[in-house]
Each structure stands twice: as structure tokens, then as C-alpha cells.
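Summary for the steering committee. The consortium agreed at its last meeting that each partner would contribute one worked example illustrating the joint modelling workflow. Our contribution is presented below. We chose a case with several input lines so that the handling of multiple components could be demonstrated. No manual editing was applied between input and output; the record is shown as generated.
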Amino acid sequence: MLAFVVQRVLATIPVMGVVAFVVFLLLRLSPGDPAAVIAGDYATAEQVERIRAQLGLNLPIYSQFFTWLGQILRGDLGVSIFSNLPVTTLIAQRIEPTLMLALTTIVFSIVVAVPLGVLAAWKANSWIDRAVMMFAVIGFSVPVFVLGYFLIYGFALGLNWFPVQGYRSPFDSPAAFLHHIALPTLTLSAIFIALIARITRATVLEVLSEDYIRTARAKGQSERKVLFRHALKNAAVPIVTVIGLGVALLIGGVVVTESVFNIPGLGRLVVDAILKRDYPIIQGLILFFSFIYIVLNLLIDIAYTLLDPRIRY
Amino acid sequence: MSDLLQPRGEAVIAPRDLRGRRGLFARQPLAVLGAAIIVVMALAALGAPLIAPVDPLALDPLRRLRPPSEINWFGTDQFGRDVFSRVVFGARVSLIVGVAVAALSVAIGLAIGLAAGYVHWLDAVVMRVMDGLMAIPGVLLAIALVSLSGASLTTVIVAITVPEVPRVVRLVRSVVLSVREEPYVEAAIAVGTRLPLILVRHVLPNSIPPLIVQATYICASAMLTEAILSFLGAGTPPEIPSWGNMMAEGRLFFPIAPRIVLLPGVALALTILAVNVLGDGLRDRLDPKLAKRM
Amino acid sequence: MTASSPVLDIQGLTVRLPAGADRLNAVEDVSFAVGPGEIVCVVGESGSGKSVTAHSIMGLLPPGQLTPTAGRILLEGDDLLRKSPAALRALRGHRMAMIFQEPMTALNPVMRVGEQIEEVLAIHTRFDAAARRQRVLDVMRSVHLPDVERLIDAYPHQLSGGQRQRIMIAAALVLDPVLLIADEPTTALDVTTQAQILKLIKELQSRRKTGVLFITHDFGVVAEIAHRVVVMQNGRVVEQGRAEDVLRRPRHAYTRMLIRAVPTLTPPQRAPTGQVPIVLEARQLAKTYVIGGFLGRRREVKAAVNVNLAVRRGETLGVVGESGSGKSTVARCIARLIEPSAGAILLEGTDVAKLTTGALRPHRKRVQIVFQDPYRSLNPRRTVGASIIEGPMNFGVPREAALARARELMRLVDLDPDALSRYPHQFSGGQRQRLCIARALALEPEILIADEAVSALDVSVQAQVLQLLDDVRRRFNLALLFITHDLRVAAQVCDRIVVMQNGEIVEEGVTAEIFRNPRHPYTRALFEAAPGRAFAFGAFETD
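What follows is the complete predicted structure of the assembly.
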């Protein structure tokens, strides 16, 4: 078991290496002088020179890469050009709302989507199935911000049930937190629910045609237990995989949702950095999000051994 | 269970079966509807200068934020520009980006995927790079690419293509790996067929149906990403009317005039929905194996 | 018929196929009965409706696709077709139970095997957990599973195929049903395992007086196990009666044809091949697969070890073995679809074992191979003509000449030359196998490898394809390397035989000699396991 975990952990190293290299290249291979790009349009020649030295741009490119890599490994993601604060500090300041939004979204999506998907598979080709699948394809198609504005228009401006925007910490006031997080969660969940419901339906449907389902029925097992005891347990691995891979989608969505609902999280940090061309922040956040994504999928990989006895070592 | 009905599952749909007995619409009403919406949008994009009643860029400070009227069907925005004309022109950006990204990523992904699937040492390297690319959230990667290289339609297309390529590579590679285990490929090797011919004759034809399906999904996803980029201010340059740009610019006026945000949003959602529905239809038709899985 | 009333009595059962199928009903007006303690074999080829009949009894037909439209299925006098789903569920697993063909896929991979037996008790009884566990252990012992205290917590993938089928049987019999339906329960098993499972089923049913409905396509199994036989063809019962009567004095032409098509275990007289030159020789051939590595546990799997064999022109050499014996690995090494790890493959003296892709190409045409699965051996997207001329065109034959040759070959394999423009799905399994033989012959090879080439075919079709293979061998003076798990088939077509076990050749010799006097214990075990070996098929008594 330990060997398996170690092996999986080591297997992520090349992936992380590729991520680091791509992010490094992003800045170095952009047209023009990176120092000038970073310094911005109104920088003086001095400022540009200072940034160039700071970035070590006078060194050969491979040594630049390893210097930079060394910094990252020590947990140094660089310094914001505008606020002069370390990117790690900025991330720490802004992470709570993002984490909360991601958690509420994942929980809400799974709670809604898995039963929907199972239901659709069980009633395959019925009107229920078609309705669920139609809902799923709409969930895939409506852009997060379009949905966000529609929800604001209906529930915040129209019915006045929820605040239009903003964020409250659950540690200050759980009620206010839920009140504020409801619409953003709903907005961000749509695509995630669509994704999970679709894959749940597909895998459960596939599992239902397996021989062991017929065996369970031949034993006289009830349909409900066939569905939940036999089918869902076997469908768990692909479903969990998709939830893990879907986190990439979620990260993109968080950025937009925070922007629509004016939530002061990492997404807003990115958007503000884009508008101000604050490259170290963009770079640092891409690394950070990629890291989260890789670690999460690593954990899921290891969790498979709990779900499926065939996957061992 | 299904073996009660069919002697053996036919893995790939036979060419003859592509022509059904019943009409296309009866079999796949949604896909046909999707295709129809796409045709309408494409016509709007091509004939935008003819259809749009007003120049989409023309400012009219005196007629700002007007409600819909006979002249301005969708009203005017905060600069007095005609919203309907801008929505019509916006179709151009979405369709160009969608089609270009789909074509580019399929072409690049196919080449890399075929190579990776057949050349053993290349496979490991390519797949690690693809894993790495896939680990970077696509929207963020595109944002970074656009904001570093400066906003232009070309940059946007390239920036959206980069994160899509790994998906195609994985798909092609998985087809290659499964096809090359097929006895008919082994038989082709046994009769002395060279590798390039094996790829063209046996592997490529099996890759095309899932690729067509994947291309439509990529097209939808690219339109979505373009809108997100533009909405976040890292996409299509503001002087080109795109649906994402319109929503981004109009958002400050959302409480007063929701339609200037919602109408481009509806156009965008409808187009993406149409492409996705068409993709589902194609998938059911061309790729029954995938249809079962998705 | 039996004196006591039957446990299962099927009367006039008709099951409708969905619209657009090749016939109206999957089974039509089927009637037969199973008495207590009786084994009734329903035998037929694919599409005969035997499986549909079995699933109808259990109420396991795919809903909406196959619907019983007439008749009665009486289990202990109760009509199952008129029962509510809940009432039927209460009977399934309790009064009637079923075991299936694939013991791997029929068991839930993420549940412990003990749980899967226990499930039946949990559904149908009010036993507490301790009592259930005790019953599970008991029934596991009764199917002769070893070390049951440990095995009860194992997962299916940790068990062998035979053990899995024992688990299936244990789960089926734990509540002592009056009827056991066995749907081809040994078809996926090796012959030695099959013999054990057949013995187990016989033993348990005679001890427990269970009525067994045994579905099979294999007359060897029928001869081994059946008390009575029901023969089905195209959804209808064509003949039924006592096993003795049906096997020795079949009345219906179809039954006679089926039984006659079963190859006998007695090799026919074959002219000795004599001192013609050796065209193919394998010397110390070995194939080792390395699994894992890089931190994973590195394991070496020796698929073939020290294999020596030689085939003469015009001779058929059989390579016989069970799954995992390495027989297919040897075939694929010789066809150079995989590269052997060690040893030499001599084609008339030239060693091709280590040749590079380019250097190998001229030799490719000399060795051709026909695979097991007729449904995957032809590219479904290309016309069969394109598949047949692919080889010759690779070696520079002009298209027209290759096509003309293809038409000749079509006639040779008894197919319409005009069918060259059709696609594979328009042909039956047997026809596709003929096409594959034509494709192999198009290159005018010296050596033809048939890798389980008739194993996936129905017995009547199998006989025809075997005949064809033998014809082309004689006609083109081919060296035929015949890979098979089936001793009956090997007895009929092979001049000489090598027997493989665990990657090694354990015995070799002239076919008739080996069948008369097997020396190696494994060969003897194989022969003893052959179902129906005591029965001379086709030697009908005149009525």
C-alpha cells in the first residue's frame, strides 16, 4: 500500500515539472522584453532594469529556469508588481471565500447530480431520463456569467430573496454566509451538476448491463438494492474520476463567478491582476491552482483502492 | 444481457447503417433543431452587414440606454449603440473562434496522438506533457496567454486551442491503442502492410467519427471560453463586438438595463446549446460506443 | 417421463422478438419438463433460443425487448408468467436459481465473495448475521472450496475461474432450490476445470434432488451429464427424449447433423508425411513479459519457455493446451506479431526471430495467420475485397491481377466472387472465417497458422471450416500450424501434436499415437477431462 502511494506521488513529479516549465515559458517566450512587459507601459528605463535584474534575465535561460524553480520549491511565488506584497501572502488573504465557494459547489453538485444521474439511468429512455439529460446539456451550454446574471435578475433584483453580490465569512455569521453564497453556488454548480449527472447516468447504465447485475436479480434482489448496492458502488470509480477532473472546470468557473458576484477571493485576484497586467500574480495563481488540481487528483487516485479492491499496489 | 438479442456486438457502425430508413428529423429532432440554429447563426454572421440595421460601432450619445423600439429592436447600450446590430455581429466572433479552435486542435491533436499511439518512446514523453497541460486550468492558461501576447482574435484562438489539444491527443491515442489490438490490424501487419498505411487505412477511419463528435464539443467549449475571456477583459479586443465583450461592458448598467447583458447572453447560450445538442446527436449516430459511455 | 410431478413444466412458451428482428419469435411453442433430481440439457447452436428460454423462466428477459406472448411456465405447478414482479423475486434465488457462463463477470467485482452468497440469505431468510455466516461457510465447503474461512473474505479477482464458478454454484444452491438453471456454465472454463464443475453439479443435484436445466451447445457435455435432452433450432424444439435415445438414435435430421458434426476423439487414419522438407522450425523459442518496474513490483511472466517444434511441408502440426499454456504466444511469435525474447524461428533455414521490421517484410508473406474471432478479424469499414487484396498489393501485385486472384480465392473458399464489394457485417461468422482464410491464401504462404480459428464457430459451421482448412493444406501443400484447446478438433485434423502447459511443451508425437497412449500426466488429465469421451459420436444405431 505504502509503495503504491509513494509510486503515485512520484508519478506526479513529471506532471508538476511540465506545469512549472509551461508557466515559466509563458512569461519568457512572450513577445518583447519580459521586464518591459512586467513593468508596464508607463515604467521608466530604471524600473525596467531593476525588474530585469530581479528576474535574473541576464542569466542563460536554463539557469533562469532552475533559479525560478528553486524559488517556487521554497514556496516563493514572487512579488506583486503593484502592491509589492508576496503572491503567497495575497493568496492566503483571499483563499477563504474561494475555498468556501468551491466546497459548497462540490457538495451541492454531488448531492443533486448523483441521484439525478442514477434516476436517469434507471429510467433510461423515459421522459425523466430525457428531462435530466436536457437539463444537463443546458447546464453545459449556458456560460457561468450568463446564468449568474439571470439568477441575479430573477432572485436578487426581482424576488429580492438573495443579496445581489458580496461575501460573508461563515466564521462571522453562518446565516449571512449561506444567504450570500447561495446564488454563486447555484451559478457555479450548473455545469458541475451537468457533468456529474451525465457521467453518473452513463456509468450506471453501463454497469446495469453487466452480468453481475443479472446475477443479483437472479438472487431475487430488489431493484432498489440492485441499483444502490450493486450498480452505484461499481460506478463509483468513474464518477469520482470525473469529479476530480471537473475541478479544472470548477477553477475556471470560480474566477468568473467571483467576478459576477463580487466575491473577494482568488478569482477576483486573478481578474484584477489581468486588468493591471500584474504578471507575477497570474503566474503564481496558475501554479497554485494547478498544484491543487494535481494534489486533488492524486488523492482521488489513492482513494480508488478503497472503492475498488481490484486496484492495488 | 444484450447477447440475448445480438449474436455479437458490432463495435463500429457499418457504412451502410449510416443511412436510416426513417427521416433524420424523426430520429434526432434535437440535433436537427441544433443544426438549424447553427445555420441561422452562421447566416447572421456571414450576412451581418446586410442584416444589422445600424453600424454596430456607431455611437449615439443622445440615444443612450433606450428601451427596444422599432429602430433599435433590442434597444441601445450605454454608448447609444444598437444592441441588435451588435448581437448580430457578435455571432461572427463566436463562430470564427469555435470553428477555428475546433479545426486547429483536432489537426494538431490528431498528428500528436497518432505519433504517440504508435511510437513507443514518444508516447511516455508526450503523455507527460499532455498531463501537465491538462493540469493547468484551461481558462487561466488562456487568460495568461492572451494577457501576455496582447489581445487580438488570433491570440484568442491560439490561447484557447492550447488547452484543448491534450483532450484530442488523449482521444486519438486511446483509439490507436484499442484499434491496434484488433485482429484485423494484426492481420494487416501479417500481410506486410507498412506502418503509415496501417495508420491511414485502419486507424484513421476509426478515429474520425469520435473526432467529429469531439470537434463539436470543442467548438462549443471554445465559444464558452472566448466569452469568458472577453467577459474578464482578457479576450477579444473591445473594438470588435463579441457577446462576451458586450456583457462585460454592460454589466455596470445591469440593474438599470438588464437586457444589454441578458440578450447577448441568450444568443451565446443558445448557440452553444445548439452546438452541444448537435454534438450529442452526432455522437449517438457516429460513435455508439461513446454514446454508451457519455 | 418421471413418476413424480415435474418441478418445471414449460407448456407452449412463445417469446416475441422486437420488431425488425430476423424472425417473429425468439422461441415458439416450446414445451418440456424437468423432474426432481433430473438433469435436462437444452442443446442448440447460437440463435436457437435456448438462452431466451432459460431467462424466461427466471423472469430475467430484458424488459420491453423480449416478451412472452403465449404458454405457461409452471414451477411446482405455479405459473411463473402470471406472477407479479415481487412474487417472482421471492422465488428467484429461493426456489429457483441460475448460474451463468462467465464466472468472472457474473460476480460483482467490488463485493467479497462471501457477501455475495450471504446476500441470498439476507434477501430470503431472517437468519441473523452469525447464522448466515455459518450457512455460507457450510455451502462453500459443500462445493469443495479450500480454506473457506479465508476465501469467504476474498474478492472475485483473487479466485481462479473454477473457484468463481464454485462460488456461483454455492450462491445458487445455498437455499436448496428445487430448480437450478445452468446457462453454459462451463463454456468459459478450461477443459480440466470444466470436468470438475460438471462433476460437482452432478454430485450436488443427486444429493439434493435438484432439478437441473442445463443449457449447452456442446454434445460432449450433453453425453457427460444429461438424463434427458431437448434439441432446439431457430426457437423451436425439434426433438426431445432420454439422453441415450437422442444421442444414439436421433430422429430429427437437424439432431443427426449436429451430432455428426461433433469431431470424435478417435483420430482418423492419416497417411504418414514422410521425409518431406521442414519449412518451419522453432528452436528454444521463449517469450518473457516484464510487468511493472519503476517502483512497482517487477514481475516476469514466462509466456513461453524453450519451445522446439518443426513443421514439414503439407503437414498439420497441432499445438494443444489450455488457456495460459502459451500456445497463442508461440503462434504470434512465429507470425512475428510479437518479438520472441530468445530462440530462433527458421523459415527454410532463415532465422526471422530477430529481424527488424524492414528486413522481416519479404518473409511476411511466407507465414500467414487466421485468428479466432471472425467478427474482429476484418476491418468493418473496408470491403472484403480491399482486405483480401491488401497483402498482394503490398508486395507489388497490380490491383487488377490481385482482384482477379481474389475472385478465384472466393470460389475456392466457396463464396460468391461478386461478394468482394460487400462489407464484413454482411457475412456470417463462418463466412467471415472463410474470408480470412482467403486473405491469408492471397499471399501464397508456405505456412498457415490457425489460431483457435474454429473455436468461436457453431459446431456445424466448425466442421465445414475445418474441412476447408484441410482442403487448402492439401491443395497448396501448406504447412499448417493448428493452435487449439479442443482435443476433438485436434484429433481430426492434425498429423502430429504438441501439448503445452505453462509455456512449455510437455509432450509431442504422432496424433494417433498420442491419443492411443498419452505419456505425460498432464496429457492424460486433458484426455480424461474431455467431456463425453466415452461416447462415440455419429455412430448411430439404426432404428
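The two ends of chain C are 21 Å apart (CA to CA). The first strand of chain C starts at residue 8 and ends at 16.
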